[in-house]
Amino acid sequence: MNEARRPWVLHVDLDQFIAAVEVLRRPELAGLPVIVGGRGDPTERAVVSTASYEARAFGVGSGMPLRIAARKAPDAVILPVDAPAYTAASDEVMATLRAQPGAVVQVLGWDEAFVGVSTDDPEAYARSIQQAVLDRTGLHCSVGIGDTLVRAKNATDFGKPRGTFRLTADNWLEVMGALPTIALWGVGGKISKRLAAHGIKTVDQLARADEAVLAAEFGPKMGPWYRQLGRGDGSAVVDDTPWVARGHGRETTFQENIVEPADIERAARELAGQVLEDVAAEGRPVVGVGLKVRYAPFLTKTFVHKIAATSDRETVVEEILALVGRIEPGRPLRLLGVRAEMQMPDEAREGHTPTRSGW
Fold it and tell me: Which of 356, 342, 116, 98 is nearest to 244 (CA)?
């Protein structure tokens, strides 16, 4: 018997998206371990952007150094990143989602989006989405079905690959309760360790945790929010307000470590120039700058600094160079990144992250 027509949140997640786009362009790669990262050269410093399921079977994962991935899967086909191709494929997918009857679409990235819809059969609607995406793009996707954004997002993991799964208030703790807190959308390694220090190791324990304990550890807002997250509660509203970037950043991994101050300043100026071109296209003033440094062998530090709103390029560059002055002298660098935060327009969507009741 069908349920009454009601609102649902669907989370659409493209399966092994980047690898799948590459296989579409090179059908002979189907079924082979495929790794995409950097310039496709495992002798260079770069990380894995994505790996096909066949490559993942060898223990290859996103963010892994390419040289280690090549060692784990010696017969894998390693390809360079082709961002324009992935953007074009993503645009086709999102256009397909927006064309679905009654759909409100909130894009989360290249390969995922929330779809808000009212229906009496969310599974059938999810399957129709999967078929429409496949027909138009040749790409497969998984769909999580939920009564909140958090539940829909977590549901997708149980539907992969090419499937659907429903998580609601009725089965949330039955499905999620025994899992470690890091399984939750919005809980990373650091947060899960801090929770574990209070004896909170599972989703069920978090859902039943003492709010006073959480507030003491994480603050009066975030503490209770983590308990809410453990219950899968929060916003059920899919917001299609256009995404507005808070900032732009560029980074580069040096094939050979750099250590000389002149080389570091030159690299910082070059990155700052690229970032400022991105910022200029937005037409909004800069209100903060950041610097990401990765010392050899692999220690990462981030420095940030708020500044008075300005559109003057030289002022921004000087503020970035001031952060460069905080780099430890004589210590070799393997990566440098520069970021500029911009003033947000009044009409921008608030709460863009999965924290504090959703996007």
Answer: 342
